[in-house]
């Protein structure tokens, strides 16, 4: 069975029809969900692309794989979706938003080009249609700023700065325009990019022998968590600086016509489960990682909520550690020790923190993890390099 992961960066669940959106049209995503298995509570392991994606391909949480910034080094002994699949005879390839960032230097990721258009991936699929393959397609069509290619650097950065200025102004019209632009980008991503991608699979006769995972690496916000809008300095403050559910709850759909019956999984899962699940489907199970195979859930077995860790980073170090265990979510700010706790069934928007009500077992679990936390050693030069890379990418 071929494996495809289609990532729609920064896609919020509340902007997808099959997850309850009413004002955004996403019929292609919704049809994929209707013919596959939709996971109702899929939680990203981190609130921004770098550590989250690495968790997706390793099955490890960020504080366990240690890849916390773009110039970090992933331990070569850590298996990934790509290395395991390649070892089992699969051709592997990926298309990314910027070849200077995602999967740079990752063994067997075989970055083959940009995901800003479908031209390269169509050629790749045609070239490898007759052999088993694993393909990763990471689209930035839903990542701010919208309607501008990342490759058009000057215009892209200017549009990003205009968005940040609008948020800082606190102007309601500017925020409404931003949200409308995001909604349009989601619709275009669904009905132009994903639709054409799936049509190509159909035309090549690959749909019946391919498992497609549609997912996002994290969600998005528009500065609503900051009382002082001037504190929103870049993309990092839209996703990256916080671990609220609008940032870490993501769509996840797995579709394999003729092999996976349609269904909905209500229990909580983590994106660290993605690679163990896909490799299990491919007959190459991955053990000894934080994630587990969700194949039993895909086959209709009842499953219980699994704990989901969420790890925020700042300047290459862990800054927040959160454990989401429905109905609770407890976040500890590593440096200050400040706690935020939310009873999600009563307070789904995480407005009122009630740390005094957190069950003792949950708090003990979080602090045991904190006690074992090993922060990476970064020199002043390293920190400057991390900041420069994030600035180049528009995060700061």
Strand order of the largest sheet: 4-3-5-1-6-7-2-8
Written as H for each helix and E for each strand, in order along the chain, the element string is EHEHHHEEHEHHEHEEHHEEEEHH
- Looking at CATH, which topology would you report? Alkaline Phosphatase, subunit A
Report helical residue fraction. Answer: 25-40%
CATH class placement: Alpha Beta
Q: What's the architecture, going by CATH?
A: 3-Layer(aba) Sandwich
Task: State the major sheet.
Answer: 8 strands, mixed
Strand pairing plus helix content: what structural class?
Answer: alpha/beta
Cα-atom radius of gyration: 20 Å
Give me the number of helical elements.
Answer: 12
- The beta-strand count equals 12
- What is the beta-strand fraction? 15-25%
Contiguous low-pLDDT stretches (5 residues minimum) are none
Structure keywords:
Alkaline Phosphatase, subunit A; 8-stranded mixed β-sheet; alpha/beta; 396 residues
What does the model show?
With 396 residues, this protein is α/β, with parallel strands linked by helices. It has one domain (2-304): Alkaline Phosphatase, subunit A. The chain contains twelve helices and twelve strands. An eight-stranded mixed β-sheet has the order 4-3-5-1-6-7-2-8, sandwiched between helices. Strands 9-10-11-12 form a four-stranded antiparallel β-sheet, with helices on one face. It is globular.
Would you spell out the secondary-structure blueprint of this structure?
Layout: E1 2-8, H1 27-34, E2 37-43, H2 49-58, H3 62-65, H4 81-87, E3 91-96, E4 111-114, H5 119-128, E5 133-139, H6 153-169, H7 172-203, E6 210-215, H8 245-248, E7 249-255, E8 263-270, H9 274-281, H10 295-298, E9 308-314, E10 317-325, E11 328-333, E12 339-343, H11 360-371, H12 380-392
Parallel strand pairs: 1-5, 1-6, 2-8, 3-4, 3-5
Antiparallel strand pairs: 2-7, 6-7, 9-10, 10-11, 11-12
């Amino acid at each position: 069975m071929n494996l495809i992961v289609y990532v729609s960066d920064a896609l919020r669940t509340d902007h997808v029809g099959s997850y309850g959106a009413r004002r955004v049209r996403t019929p292609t995503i919704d049809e994929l969900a209707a013919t596959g298995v939709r996971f109702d509570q899929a939680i990203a392991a981190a609130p921004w692309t770098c550590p989250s994606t690495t968790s997706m391909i390793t099955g490890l949480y960020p504080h366990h794989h240690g890849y916390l910034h773009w110039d970090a080094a992933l331990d070569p002994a850590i298996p990934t979706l790509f290395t395991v699949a390649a070892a089992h005879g699969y051709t592997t390839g990926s298309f990314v938003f910027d070849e200077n960032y995602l999967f740079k230097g990752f063994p067997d990721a075989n970055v083959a080009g940009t995901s800003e258009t479908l031209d390269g991936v169509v050629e790749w699929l045609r070239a490898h249609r007759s052999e088993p393959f694993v393909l990763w397609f990471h689209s930035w069509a839903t990542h701010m700023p919208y309607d501008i290619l990342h490759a058009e650097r000057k215009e892209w950065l200017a549009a990003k700065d205009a968005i940040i200025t609008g948020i800082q102004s606190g102007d309601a019209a500017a925020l409404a325009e931003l949200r409308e632009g995001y909604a349009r980008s989601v619709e275009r991503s669904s009905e132009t990019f994903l639709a054409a991608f799936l049509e190509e699979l159909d035309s090549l006769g690959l749909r019946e022998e391919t498992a497609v995972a549609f997912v996002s690496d994290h969600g998005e916000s528009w500065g609503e968590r900051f009382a002082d809008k001037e504190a929103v300095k870049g993309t990092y403050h839209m996703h990256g600086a916080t671990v609220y559910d609008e940032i870490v709850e993501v769509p996840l759909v797995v579709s394999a016509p003729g092999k996976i019956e349609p269904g909905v999984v209500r229990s909580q899962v983590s994106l660290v489960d993605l690679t163990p699940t896909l490799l299990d489907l491919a007959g190459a199970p991955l053990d000894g990682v934080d994630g587990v195979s969700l194949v039993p859930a895909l086959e209709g077995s009842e499953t219980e909520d699994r704990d989901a860790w969420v790890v925020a980073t700042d300047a290459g170090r862990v800054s927040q550690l959160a454990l989401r265990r429905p109905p609770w979510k407890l976040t500890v700010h590593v440096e200050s020790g400040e706690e935020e706790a939310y009873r999600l069934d009563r307070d789904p928007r995480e407005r009122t923190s009630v740390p005094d009500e957190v069950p003792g077992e949950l708090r003990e679990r979080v602090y045991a993890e904190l006690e074992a936390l090993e922060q990476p050693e970064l020199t002043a030069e390293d920190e400057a390099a991390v900041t420069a890379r994030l600035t180049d990418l528009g995060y700061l």
